[in-house]
């Protein structure tokens, strides 16, 4: 088999090399195939001789990604607008072909011969169709591409499951643990795009002492261990942990690997998906380098719409099930992810292009069903009540100057005293547990006016609605949260600007009735249609309605004041931003797939608000219960008028007024405002 595959590869690469000198294909299509062939030359060189990338690693890396960088993107075949303009009716399909071919970078660097070979063969099959006396019909070209997706979906999905489970898939781990991290050329060995962010991060971390690095790594790995402890889950049953990070953080990750190994967990480190069948929107799950061009990722986020139908969805689900079945022993001992997030990039507002493929209404329903089924399959082999996670965030150099000072400030925020916050947050919970209604109102142009309905406590001595969130799985410390009762929850949620899933939303309004979003708008684009589509794609994820899965009160005023001091509030990741004011998540509850597992606060009370009227439908049909998303939207303190609990007699007790904590016992949370001085301190 290996010999046959090698023969196929040799034939394919030799034929690829011949394309640039041929004139059989008429223009403008000849230029397309010549461009893709030219791109593939250095990739093939890496496969044949890995040493070629070591001679000028930075220059070689730039060559691989130059065509999709913003300066070149307007005339790149990866740009659907350009592809359609130049290639007409073939434009969308050939633009997809171009994007799928770019995965060859990964396959060459990781020596994945099968993946590279089938990618080259796909290009050649389409090229051959254009070499005939008559041009192929657009339908014929589309058929070739669809056959590729259909024929190889099983292998690609099953291989992806193995990547996510098997610690012997150690390409990245070998770079991480075996490189001289003081020589930044190691960054180019992954094959990911390397920007100034990755270089600047690695350079900064090299200025830290080993003791400082170990402390950061310990916060990260200890949070993971504490997550199992807090959830009363047995970590000793687990043998692997998935570590996700951005290139440049290797010193921290290397130290964390040793920490995880000391408690019996071997790292599984896999790259974000490259094959279309394994990608989901523009999100990157797995380790990643820099994003060469966020517009390119956004343009190709729904390429699956070229091929998605019920048959393909069924094939993908079967392949996922088969993959997990073949890896069930490894799945059973997998503990879940430990994630290092990054933030600080320039805010990205995409250009919406009619030439980019998007999902039809019918495909949206198929995608929702496929995502739901996939979650159920994963949960069957890696049960939610047996796994945990942790997540921490650090800034990138692009956040601005003084980067080193901002980085150290975020480290300080990530290591705030959990016990101190736990005691203060308990006072907030004690008041919240005396009522069933909470009112939230905006100020200073924020039009928020919400009423939240809380669950009834049958035994307040033993039960609570709110989780007292300290720094374990969700670093840093600083929130109390619940799953609201949907009936009775309603009103308007408004934020002037918020950054969600890597995208900026301006003047975002969500209208809730019976706890579900029934109307929505934003101010990103000129037309209402564009704005609604933007929300549907990136917040609602094509669900006709979506519930409020979480209501929380953030208490981390230290993070808020730091964000104001450095002018980075708009760049804070949701992980930190959600602690900087009240927030509301649309989608699943915080306890999705774990609703039947008891959860307790440090005071011993059980958190009973793990379900709502929709999630409880899992007992009848899981397809009705889960949305596969959970998007947090935070109102910053400066836009907050008040948070008040309302008792049965209509009497109110204030927790926050005019952006400041006023509940007795919580006033200390205002001290960062006071020490900051200026406008924020005197508000």
Report on this model:
There is one protein chain. Helix 1 (2-18) packs across helix 8 (113-130). 47% of the residues are buried. The protein has three domains: 2-136; 171-386, no CATH class; 417-682, no CATH class. The radius of gyration is 26 Å and the shape is globular. Mean pLDDT is 94; it is low at 678-683. The strands form four sheets. An eight-stranded antiparallel beta sheet has the order 12-11-10-6-5-17-18-19, covered by helices on one side. The chain has a five-stranded antiparallel beta sheet with strand order 8-9-13-14-16, covered by helices on one side. Strands 2-1-3-4 form a four-stranded parallel beta sheet. It is an alpha+beta fold and 683 residues long.
Low-confidence stretches: 678-683
**Class per helix and strand makeup:** alpha+beta
Number of discrete helical segments: 24
Q: Strand order across the biggest sheet?
A: 12-11-10-6-5-17-18-19
Percentage of residues in helical conformation: 40-55%
Strand content: 15-25%
Q: Rg, please?
A: 26 Å
Tally of discrete structural domains: 3
What value does the average pLDDT take? Answer: 94
């Amino acid at each position: 088999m290996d010999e046959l595959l090698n023969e196929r590869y040799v034939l394919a690469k030799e034929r690829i090399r011949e394309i640039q000198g041929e004139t059989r294909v008429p223009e403008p299509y000849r230029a397309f195939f010549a461009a893709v062939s030219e791109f593939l030359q250095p990739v093939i060189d890496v496969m044949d001789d890995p040493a070629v990338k070591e001679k000028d690693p930075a220059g070689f890396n730039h060559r691989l990604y130059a065509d999709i960088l913003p300066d070149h993107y307007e005339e790149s075949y990866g740009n659907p607008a350009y592809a359609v303009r130049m290639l007409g009716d073939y434009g969308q399909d050939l633009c997809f072909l171009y994007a799928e071919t770019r995965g060859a970078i990964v396959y060459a660097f990781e020596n994945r011969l099968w993946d590279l070979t089938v990618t080259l063969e796909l290009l050649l099959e389409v090229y051959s169709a254009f070499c005939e006396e008559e041009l192929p019909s657009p339908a014929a070209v589309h058929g070739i591409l669809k056959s590729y997706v259909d024929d190889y979906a099983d292998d690609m999905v099953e291989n992806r499951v193995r990547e996510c489970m098997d610690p012997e898939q150690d390409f990245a781990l070998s770079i991480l643990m075996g490189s001289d991290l003081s020589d930044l050329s190691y960054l180019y060995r992954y094959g990911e795009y390397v920007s100034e962010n990755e270089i600047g991060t690695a350079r900064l971390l090299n200025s830290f002492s080993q003791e400082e690095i170990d402390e950061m790594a310990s916060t990260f790995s200890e949070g993971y261990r504490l997550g199992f402890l807090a959830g009363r889950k047995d970590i000793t049953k687990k043998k692997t942990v998935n570590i996700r990070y951005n290139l440049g953080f290797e010193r921290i990750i290397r130290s964390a690997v040793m920490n995880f190994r000391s408690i019996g967990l071997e790292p599984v480190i896999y790259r974000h998906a490259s094959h279309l069948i394994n990608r989901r929107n523009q999100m990157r799950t797995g380790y990643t380098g820099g994003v060469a061009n966020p517009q390119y990722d956004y343009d190709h986020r729904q390429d699956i719409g070229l091929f998605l139908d019920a048959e393909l969805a069924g094939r993908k689900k079967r392949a996922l099930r088969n993959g997990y079945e073949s890896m069930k022993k490894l799945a059973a001992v997998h503990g879940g992810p430990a994630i290092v997030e990054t933030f600080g990039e320039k805010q990205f507002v995409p250009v919406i292009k009619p030439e980019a493929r998007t999902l039809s209404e019918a495909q949206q329903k198929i995608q929702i069903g496929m995502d739901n089924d996939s979650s159920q399959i994963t949960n069957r082999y890696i049960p939610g009540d047996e796994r945990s996670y942790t997540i921490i965030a650090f800034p990138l150099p692009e956040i601005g100057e003084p980067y080193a000072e901002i980085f150290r400030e975020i480290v300080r925020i990530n290591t705030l005293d959990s016990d101190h916050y736990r005691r203060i947050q308990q006072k907030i919970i004690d008041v919240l547990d005396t009522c069933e209604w909470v009112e939230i109102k905006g100020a200073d142009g924020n039009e928020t006016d919400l009423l939240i309905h809380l669950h009834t406590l049958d035994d307040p001595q033993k039960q609570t609605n709110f989780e007292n969130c300290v720094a374990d799985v969700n670093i840093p410390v600083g929130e109390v949260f619940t799953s609201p009762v949907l009936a009775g929850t309603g009103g308007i949620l408004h934020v002037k600007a918020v950054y969600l899933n890597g995208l900026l939303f301006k003047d975002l309004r969500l209208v809730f009735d019976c706890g579900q979003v029934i109307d929505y708008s934003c101010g990103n684009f000129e037309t209402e249609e564009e704005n609604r589509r933007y929300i549907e794609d990136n917040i609602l994820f094509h669900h006709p309605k979506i519930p409020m899965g979480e209501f929380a009160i953030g208490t981390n005023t230290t993070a808020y004041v730091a964000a104001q001091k450095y002018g980075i509030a708009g760049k804070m990741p949701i992980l930190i931003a959600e602690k900087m004011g009240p927030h509301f998540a649309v989608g699943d509850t915080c306890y999705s797939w774990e609703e039947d597992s008891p959860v307790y606060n440090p005071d011993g009370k059980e958190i009973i608000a793990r379900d709502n009227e929709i999630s409880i439908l899992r007992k009848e049909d899981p397809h009705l219960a889960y949305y596969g998303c959970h998007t947090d939207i935070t109102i910053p303190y400066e836009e907050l008028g008040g948070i008040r609990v309302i008792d049965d007699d209509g009497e109110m007790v204030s927790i926050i007024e005019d952006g400041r904590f006023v509940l007795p016992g919580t006033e200390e949370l205002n001290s960062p405002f006071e020490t900051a001085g200026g406008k924020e301190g005197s508000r």
